[in-house]
Specification:
Helix content is about 40%, strand content about 15%. By secondary structure, the protein is α/β, with parallel strands linked by helices. The strands form 3 sheets. The protein has a 6-stranded parallel sheet with strand order 7-6-8-9-13-14, with helices on both faces. The model has no long low-confidence stretch (mean pLDDT about 95).
Amino acid sequence: MKQGLKVLIIGTADTKADELLFMKQSVEGEGASAAIMDVGVLGKPTFVPEITNEQVAAAAGMTLGQIVELGDENAAMTKMADGAVKLALDLYAKGEVHGVLALGGTMGTDLALDVTAALPLGMPKFIVTTVAYSHLIPPDRLAPDVMMILWAGGLYGLNSICKATLSQAAGAVLGACNTVVSPDNGRPRVAIGGLGKSCLSYMVDLTFELERRGYEPVVFHCTGMGGRAMESLIEQGTFVAVFDFALCELSNSLRGSVVNAGRSRLETAGRSGVPQIVAPGASDMVDVQTWAPLPDAYKSRPYHAHNRLIASVTTTPEERRELAQFVAGKVNAATGPTAFLLPVHGIHAWDRPGQPLHDPEGHQVFVDQYTQLIKQPVDLRILDMHINDRAFVDVAIGIFDNWVEAGLIPSGALEKQEMEQ
């Protein structure tokens, strides 16, 4: 165990004192130290937390009494979340906390999501919650590296089932603190949105081209959480450029699929001015759960089961027009360098001739709509190729190289070394 590890434990000490103290004992029993932050509002805890609820309220710019006087539990906990975020960030900046372990039902989880989302990637963060990975939690509330465990049998009272869960959580966050390798800032990072190679294979050649230029490519699996993680890290200034080539999450969002990254997907790079190259990869379909009954509206559509978790159906011409308007609005609003690549022969492996989702007439709707909707100064490229062709990567990397030469993207690490030599 690394020396001096300290875990911040967050929960409502008035209602969950036994559970919080048990987790603290579990952490300290392994040789680390722990501090409890009390985010409760109404009751008085049976022990003195290291960080009191009065301190949390003060960090939010209010007294605890003023928060109580709000008279609304949602408003009160939102304010306590503001204070908890501020204190956690301050402790992290001072090097006084190395991991976060939060506990809660829906109320405590709501607050914990704010705290964990505010902390940087690589700082271990674990939530013990009665709604672990539930669809109640919107994608845009999740930190890119948050960990969760279901708090089974622990809503009220410390029992043997609850102890098994809480002790695992304590061990998990300690293990993460002890073994985490912080991100290396040696090479400029470039984000790539993608899917598995069986669907979108461009990242094989694209990552190679970026690496040999001295960049660190980071590929995200755009099946909901992947796209949200990418947006979150763009927001944190992690990337010098973005290749956003898998927009399936946007189609899913419009159609109500659970495989989505929130309505703000494809907005962060544009709003932040990060150079981005965009293509509508795999966005002509809607993803569904293979294990669930197929909605009646989709039963007559071409269908492809990728595995026992996820399957896809094609979208109608009208749905494609709606998506093109949705995407074009986001792309046209970008404040930084933006290019839009439009392959006219297909946008994923399953729409090639002979494949289950081959629909050339439907794809032409996309081509016609994007040609009309994408506006300057966005660099629209209509490409006589398929998105999985090597030529597609050549076009994309050519635009990237031009932006590097123009000073819009920092030079890669190898190019910097060559200049210094």
